[in-house]
Amino acid sequence: MPEISTFDFHVTSECSQECAYCWGPQGVPEVDTATAVAIIGKIAATGSRRIVFTGGDPLQRSDIGELIEHAAGMGLEVAVSTTGDKLTRQFLDEHGGSIDLISLPLDGASEEVSRRTKLAGHFDAVMAALDLLEGYPSIDVKVATPVTRHNLADVPDVVALLDERAARMRGRLFYNVFQAFPRSMDPEVPWPEIVVSDADFTELQRQVIADFHPYRINWLSHGTLDKLYVMVFPDGSLTVPSGSEFRNYGQFLEIEDMDELLDRSDFDAPRHRLHAEGWSRSS
Question: Which of 10, 50, 87, 149 is the most exposed place for a label (fewest CB within 10 A)?
Answer without folding.
Answer: 149
